Amino acid sequence: MDQEKIKTAVKMMLEAIGEDPEREGLTETPDRIARMCEEIFGGMNREPKDILSKRFKPQSGTHGGMVLVKDIPFYSMCEHHMLPFYGVAHVAYIPDGEVVGLSKIARLVELYARRLQLQEQLTAQIADALMKELSPKGVMVMLEGEHMCMSMRGINKPGSTTVSTAVRGVFGSDETLAEHFYTQVRK
Question: Would you call 37 a catalytic residue per the annotation?
């Protein structure tokens, strides 16, 4: 990331809203914002294959059902308003020969959340990456998020939740399997 460009832009924005970037409380703000960008947009140059490359073959006959990691917290930034949205992700897949460590699922959510993003896009990216990298029988992803662009500006409706889902493979053709996912998520 171009730290100097970020600092210049923040200083210009402060001036544009009528602030004095040289006043005591703001002199270090451009630097703080530049460092923050490194952190909150840290998924920009990372690839899911790096996270999902270490795989395991379960012992024969030990697993063929759904693997669900639910209530994974995420924080992202809306690409329309550059305001945060946050919530929880629920990610399930049906392995077809290989599995990944459970923490890798949370890391995948984190990778995509740390980009300028739309919730619908984030949901699809997680599902598509799992399908591409693991070749499972199916994937289902649900995100529940609150968007600051709705809560603190615009319509001003704090507490409203947006739910997005992505369904791939057998989850799309087997209603019982999809219903099992929803039941487990709501437990």
Answer: no
